[in-house]
Design goal:
By secondary structure, the protein is α+β, with helices and mostly antiparallel strands. It contains 7 helices and 15 strands. Helix 2 packs across helix 3. It comes from Chryseobacterium geocarposphaerae.
C-alpha cells in the first residue's frame, strides 16, 4: 500500500512540475512568420487564396486526406467566404472563414479546429517581386492552450511550415498548368510550321488499337478521352486545373493504315499507384519538334501531318512519333482544335 502512495506522490509531483514549467516557460499561444516566393503573377496567386474552392484544391491541410468532406458557403470568394469540413477517418472537423480582404494585398483567415472556441489566426500578405514572381508572407497566431496542452506549441510551427512546403508544391503544379494552357492558347498561329523544344511529360492514359475507317477512329478517341477524363477527375479526384491538355501519341504515317494504334493520355505532375489496369503511365522524353496548329475536321489533319513529314524529309531529319495535343476537348460531331508535333532528330 505504501508503494502505491509513493507512486501517487511521485505522479503528483511530476504533473505539478510539468504544469509549472509549462506555465512559466511556455507561452499559451505562439506567433511566427513564414515567407515563400512563387514564380507566378500576383493576380493569379491571390485568386488561389481568396477563392476557397481554389484554396482547398492545393492546400495540403485539405488535400492530404482522401476522406475529408468540405462544404462551401457563399460568398465563395473574398471577405465573408467560409467552409466547414469533417474528416471521419482522422476524427477531425472544423470551420474556416475569410474575415478580411484587401484585394491583391492581404487576407485574414480564422480557422477553428475540433470544436476549439479559440481560432488559429492567419494573416497572409502578397507582394509582387516582379511581373512574374510573388512573395507570400504568413503571419500566424495559434489559439491559446491550457497549461497541460502547451507542449503542443513546441511543434506547431514546424507542422505549419511543413504544410506550407507541401502546399506550395501543389500550388506550383496548379498554376503551372493554368499558365501553360494560357500561354499555349495565346501562342496559337494556325497552319504555320514552327520549330519547338518540348520538355518531358508524364501522361496517364490508355493504349488502344482501333479501325481507321471513315470516322471510326475519331469516335474511338472521343470515347477513350471521356474514360480517361472521368477516371482522372472522379476516381483520382483531380481538378481541371491540375492537369494539362490531352495528348495522343501515334506513328507519324499510320493515317494510311486500316488499323491504328495509339496512346491517349492526360499530363500529370507525378506518378502514383493506379488501381485500374486499363490505365498506365507513359513518359514523353524531351525532344525537338516540328509543330503546326490545326483547326477543322479530324480527318483534315492529314494534310498538316503530311506537311510536317515533308519538312522533315526536306531537312534530312529523321522523325519519330507524332503527338496530337487537343487544345479543346475532343467531342463527337465537332471540329478539333489541336497542336500537331512531329519529333525530329539527326
Amino acid at each position: 500500500m505504501r508503494f502505491f502512495k509513493i507512486i501517487a506522490v511521485l505522479i503528483i509531483l511530476l504533473v505539478g512540475a510539468y504544469a509549472a514549467s509549462m506555465y512559466y516557460f511556455v507561452d499559451e499561444s505562439k506567433d511566427f512568420k513564414i515567407e515563400k516566393e512563387v514564380d507566378y503573377p500576383l493576380e493569379k496567386v491571390f485568386n488561389q487564396f481568396n477563392n476557397l474552392q481554389n484554396f482547398t484544391r492545393w492546400n495540403n491541410f485539405f488535400t492530404s486526406s482522401q476522406s475529408i468532406d468540405i462544404d462551401y458557403y457563399t460568398p465563395y470568394e473574398g471577405q465573408g467566404g467560409s467552409i466547414s469540413y469533417i474528416d471521419p477517418k482522422n476524427d477531425t472537423d472544423g470551420e474556416m472563414f475569410i474575415r478580411y480582404e484587401n484585394p491583391n494585398k492581404s487576407l485574414r483567415y480564422h480557422l477553428f479546429e475540433d470544436r476549439n472556441e479559440n481560432p488559429t489566426l492567419v494573416d497572409v500578405k502578397f507582394k509582387a517581386v516582379s511581373p512574374t514572381k510573388t512573395k507570400i508572407i504568413w503571419v500566424v497566431q495559434t489559439p491559446k492552450l491550457s497549461v497541460l496542452r502547451r507542449v503542443e506549441n513546441f511543434w506547431t510551427e514546424d507542422r505549419f511550415a511543413e504544410n506550407i512546403d507541401k502546399s506550395m508544391a501543389n500550388l506550383k503544379n496548379v498554376l503551372g498548368n493554368k499558365v501553360e494552357k494560357d500561354n499555349q492558347m495565346a501562342a496559337i498561329k494556325y497552319d504555320s510550321l514552327m520549330v519547338e523544344n518540348e520538355e518531358s511529360k508524364l501522361l496517364l492514359g490508355i493504349n488502344v488499337s482501333t479501325s481507321n475507317k471513315k470516322d471510326a477512329l475519331f469516335k474511338n478517341i472521343v470515347m477513350n478521352y471521356n474514360k480517361i477524363y472521368n477516371y482522372t477527375t472522379m476516381d483520382l479526384g483531380k481538378r481541371d486545373d491540375e492537369f494539362g491538355f490531352p495528348t495522343l501519341i501515334t506513328d507519324a504515317d499510320n493515317y494510311k493504315d486500316k488499323e491504328v494504334s495509339y496512346f491517349l493520355g492526360i499530363p500529370l505532375s507525378k506518378k502514383f499507384g493506379v488501381t485500374d489496369n486499363n490505365f498506365s503511365f507513359r513518359t514523353i522524353n524531351a525532344s525537338q519538334n516540328y509543330v503546326m496548329y490545326y483547326k477543322g475536321t479530324y480527318e483534315g489533319r492529314v494534310k498538316a501531318v503530311q506537311q510536317l513529314i515533308q519538312k522533315a524529309k526536306k531537312d534530312e531529319m529523321r522523325f519519330g512519333d507524332i503527338r496530337q495535343t487537343f487544345i479543346e476537348r475532343p467531342t463527337e460531331g465537332q471540329e478539333v482544335n489541336m497542336k500537331l508535333s512531329l519529333s525530329v532528330f539527326k
